[in-house]
Amino acid sequence: MASPYDVIVLGSGPGGYVAAIRASQLGMKTAVVERESLGGICLNWGCIPTKALLKSAQVFEYIKHAKDYGITVGDSNADFNAVIKRSRGVAESMSKGVQFLMKKNKIDVIYGTGKLKPGKKLDVTDKDGKATEYSAKHIIIATGGRARELPAVPIDGQKVIEYRKAMVLEKQPASMLVIGSGAIGVEFAYVYASMGTKVTIVEFMPNIVPVEDEEISKELAKQYKKLGVDIYTSSEVTKVDTSGSGCKVFVKTKEGEKTFEVDVVLSAAGVVSNIENIGLEEVGIKTEKGKIVTDDFYRTNVEGYYAIGDVTKGQALAHVASAEGIICVDKIAGHHAEPLNYNNIPGCTYCSPEIASVGYTEKAAREAGYDIKVGKFPFTASGKAKAAGAPEGFVKVIFDAKYGEFLGAHMIGYNVTELIAEVVAARKLETTGHEILTAVHPHPTMSEAVKEATEVAYGEAIHL
Ligand SMILES: Cc1cc2nc3c(=O)[nH]c(=O)nc-3n(C[C@H](O)[C@H](O)[C@H](O)COP(=O)(O)OP(=O)(O)OC[C@H]3O[C@@H](n4cnc5c(N)ncnc54)[C@H](O)[C@@H]3O)c2cc1C
């Protein structure tokens, strides 16, 4: 058995590697175990490579509309393989960055597949099948998640694919049907549609991006229709026949049964946690509805074992995983740690137009019994948005009418994922609408729309 550690983290995604760095910063002897690439799904197969693909798609869109900006360009083409190559290069360089951080923070990286054992131990089996036992005072489980497979739509990795394959297809499909319109589904729909693939989205819920405020969903549906994406909501894929050259997809829609012939089906119906075969049962760690059960400081029911990130019940987002990792380790080290407020987690979708939101939707605020003030400012009235050639979308803010509490904000438009942090900070500081009204925002910026929407909510609009 190798010498004991203070902390071993199983999994090196944004939960695991951030927790490891914090542990090392706090003077703990730390190791991280990884079976694949440092940085986890986020850096290698999630947040980062998708954003690289989206940027290529956006550049292509710009070029297609260059004339609108007074620029003439010749014929342009999206070189699909070059776009994929760029995305993989960005992911690889980010993973190397984590490698550097591990070295800088003197964290041991143990490559192999880890399995927990009782007594705060774990076995790591390397690629040659050799198992080594390690032990630590604290073991943090951060094994993340993978694509959910729908029983009616088995993923074959060729014609019915999940997000990983969608990032590395050898050839651009002429047509694609995307199942699910959460962040992953609509981001890929945008990438492929803007590069010329005929995209159809099938969503089970009544609106696309179903967790968002209804007005946001409607605006995105409007913009996607302009892009040529066909959308079927309140619809369900019942079967995919892959026996022919492409896929024959059977869909139960509001108007009855429909059949679609497409090259490829992208199953983007959410993620499930990697909690199988990691030794949870042997150690006696409790799970519930496919997630590891923890307290507010990510302690499981077994002393010395913790769980963070996509294996726990919080939102499956990179920044949530990292925040949980920091809180977990601070608590282990005996530092002050505050439980995370899961109602103040921003959610961003990087399609075009972008979506960003935090806090209550209008419907949820009403259902929670709040008397609310709502303000909406369209980007058609924003000088910066007009100058950028991006007047689509709006910012919507929701305040409690009685005390002015900032209950939520919902944005759709150019670069709005950069605007939401203001609202997160405002909510964290328990800012009221009046303080937003008197905080001077720079002109011309997209961020002015947050203040202007607040002016609308308080009946003080200048530019509407
Ligand atoms: C296509 C896509 C786009 C996304 N875009 C965004 C985005 O823009 N913003 C955002 O916030 N979130 C995004 N996400 C979600 C985000 O990637 C996850 O929430 C985040 O990666 C979770 O971090 P984690 O540390 O819990 O686990 P992961 O990042 O999943 O990392 C877990 C790691 O553990 C390793 N592992 C698992 N089991 C073992 C084992 N037994 N032994 C050794 N190693 C093991 C895995 O190889 C993996 O490297 C996206 C996800 C996808 C799929």
From TrEMBL:
<keyword id="KW-0676">Redox-active center</keyword>
<dbReference type="InterPro" id="IPR001100">
    <property type="entry name" value="Pyr_nuc-diS_OxRdtase"/>
</dbReference>
<dbReference type="InterPro" id="IPR016156">
    <property type="entry name" value="FAD/NAD-linked_Rdtase_dimer_sf"/>
</dbReference>
<feature type="domain" description="Pyridine nucleotide-disulphide oxidoreductase dimerisation">
    <location>
        <begin position="345"/>
        <end position="453"/>
    </location>
</feature>
<dbReference type="InterPro" id="IPR004099">
    <property type="entry name" value="Pyr_nucl-diS_OxRdtase_dimer"/>
</dbReference>
<dbReference type="InterPro" id="IPR036188">
    <property type="entry name" value="FAD/NAD-bd_sf"/>
</dbReference>
<dbReference type="Pfam" id="PF07992">
    <property type="entry name" value="Pyr_redox_2"/>
</dbReference>
<dbReference type="InterPro" id="IPR050151">
    <property type="entry name" value="Class-I_Pyr_Nuc-Dis_Oxidored"/>
</dbReference>
<dbReference type="InterPro" id="IPR006258">
    <property type="entry name" value="Lipoamide_DH"/>
</dbReference>
<keyword id="KW-0560">Oxidoreductase</keyword>
<keyword id="KW-0274">FAD</keyword>
<dbReference type="InterPro" id="IPR023753">
    <property type="entry name" value="FAD/NAD-binding_dom"/>
</dbReference>
<keyword id="KW-0520">NAD</keyword>
<keyword id="KW-0963">Cytoplasm</keyword>
<comment type="similarity">
    <text>Belongs to the class-I pyridine nucleotide-disulfide oxidoreductase family.</text>
</comment>
<keyword id="KW-0285">Flavoprotein</keyword>
<keyword id="KW-1015">Disulfide bond</keyword>
<dbReference type="Pfam" id="PF02852">
    <property type="entry name" value="Pyr_redox_dim"/>
</dbReference>
<dbReference type="InterPro" id="IPR012999">
    <property type="entry name" value="Pyr_OxRdtase_I_AS"/>
</dbReference>
<feature type="domain" description="FAD/NAD(P)-binding">
    <location>
        <begin position="5"/>
        <end position="325"/>
    </location>
</feature>
<protein>
    <recommendedName>
        <fullName>Dihydrolipoyl dehydrogenase</fullName>
        <ecNumber>1.8.1.4</ecNumber>
    </recommendedName>
</protein>
